[in-house]
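Q: Could you fold this chain for me?
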Amino acid sequence: MDVAGNKSAASTAVSASTLANPDTTAPTVTISTPAAGATLAQASVTVTGTATDTSGISQVTVNGTAATLKAGAGGSSSFSASITLVSGANTITVVAKDNSSNQNTTTQTRSVTYTPATPPPAANPSGTVFYVRADATGLNDGSNWNHAYTRLPATLLSGATYYLASGTYGGYTFAARSGDGSLITAKKATDDDHGPDPGATWVMGSTSYGLGVALFTGIGISIDNVTIDGVTGGGPGQWETGFGIRIFGGGYNIGISGPRQNITLRHLDIENQGRSTHLDGQNNIYATGGVKNLTVSYSYLHDVSICHLFTRNTDGVVLEYSKMARNGTNIGDTLHRESWSATTDNNITIRYNIYEDISNSAVIGIVNGTGNADNWKIYGNVFLISGRFGTFDASVSAIVDVRNDNANPDAVTKLINMTANNWEFHNNAVINFRTGSSAGFNIGAGINNKAYNNIWFNNAQQMITFNNMSHDYNLFIGNINKGNGLSIDADLARTEAHGLSGTVDPFVAWSNGNFNLKSATGAGLPIAPVTKTINGNQIIDTFDKDAFGITRGSTGGIWDRGPYQH
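A: Sure. Below is the predicted structure, expressed as C-alpha cells.
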C-alpha cells in the first residue's frame, strides 16, 4: 500500500507466482526420417519429426536451418526441413525451442551416411555399333545390315549401340553384359540415322528397313545403364502416333527387376491387353526393386487393366511428354488400380503429360506401405476424363491419394501410413471428372505441399479437396456439386487469397484434345525453376516453361494459370 492508500497486492502475487514456478522442462524431440544409420544415395534429404512441449514449440532448426512447423494438439508440432549432406558420414542435429519465458531447448542428433550413386554414363563411349534385323539372312554377327543379328544377342556389349530395323522380335530381357558396365542403347533405325553402316547395306524407299515399328511382346531389364529409344513419336502433336518401337502384350509390358539404376525409355508405344480384361498383375511399366534414375519420355502407356506405372522405392524418376490412357474400368471387378501406384518413392518429376480416362482409386495412388513419399513435382499436365466411354468413364477418389491410417480416426486398421512432404502441383488442368468423390487431393499426412496456378474445369464432385495441401492462384470454372447440381466455383475461389472463378470454357477445344487457352487468365504466381541432383543425375524442374517450351509470363507479362501459356 502506498501513502495514498492504494493496494498492489494482485500484481505482486502474479510476479511471485511466475518466479516461483518457472517452466524448466525441455521439449521432447522425435526424428521420423531419415532412419538412424541410414545410407542415402541423394545429397538432398528431408528431415521430419515431431517436437512437443506443454507451452508449445516456437522454433526447430535442423543443422542450423529453420524447419517448417505445423502445430498439432497438446503442444506438439511436426517439423520438416531439407538439408544437403556431404559424401560420407553426416550428423543431423535437431534443436527445438519451446514457448516458455525460459525458452528451454532440446538437442537431438541422428547419424546417416551419404553414398553418391554412380552418375549416368556417357552414351556409347566406345563407338561400337551393331545391327539387328529380324529377317536378315547373313552371318548373324551384327556387323552390318546384311549380316545383322536377327534379334538382340543374349549378352550385350557395354558402351554399344544396337540399331533395330523394323520387324517382330518377340520378348527380350536385358540380362547379361560384357565390358565395363557403361551405357547400352537399343535404338530404332531410321533412314536418317541407321548407324555407320559398313558396306552401305541399308535399304531405303518403299522397302526401307526403317519403315514401320520394331515390335516386342515384352521387355525385361535386370542390368544397369540401359536406354531403349524408339527415336520418333509421342509428345505434343503426336501423343498416340509415330512410334519407332512398340511393346504389345500382357503381364508387365516392361518389367524392371532389382535395384537398377540409369534406365531411360523414350518414344515407346506401350500397350497391354485392354482396360476391360479385369486381370490383376497387368501393368505397362513395373519396377519394384528400388530403381534409381528412371526416365520415361515421349511415350504412350495405354489400355491396361491395372496401372500404367507400378513402382516401389524408386528415387529420381522423370515422367515427361507422355500420355497415359485407359487403365481398367469401374465395372465388373473389385481390383485396386491407379495410373501410378507408388509407396516410398521419392524425388519424382511429372511434367508435360496427358492423363486420360484414369480409374479408379486415384490418378496417383500412394495407398500401400509405411514411410515417406517426398519431393514430387507435378506441373504442366492435363488430367482429363474424355467422356467417350459412357459408363466406362473413370471414377477416382482424388487426383492424388496418400493414405495414412493413423491420421484417419475412421480407419479400422492402422496398416498403411504414408506421409507426403514437399509436393508441388502447379500449372495443371483437371477437366471433366464427373464421378468419384474429389478431383483434388487426399493427403493423409504431410507438410509443405503446394498447389498453385491450376485450372479445375467442368468437374462434378462432392467437393474439390486440398487435404494437407496449401493452395492459391487457382482458377475454377464450371465445377458443380454432383449431389445438388449447384456451382462450387465461387466457394472454392473464396478459400484462396488470389483464387478466381468464372463461367466461360477457357480452352480452345478440350474435347478434341486442344488445351490451349482462348485468352490469358488472371495472373498466376511466378515459380522459378529448380535444379536438383539426384543420384548423380541433374534434373531441372522447369516450372517457368510449358510443354511447348514457351516461357510463362512472356505474353503481356502474365504468368497464365493452366498447363499452357497463352
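A (continued): The first strand starts at residue 28 and ends at 33.
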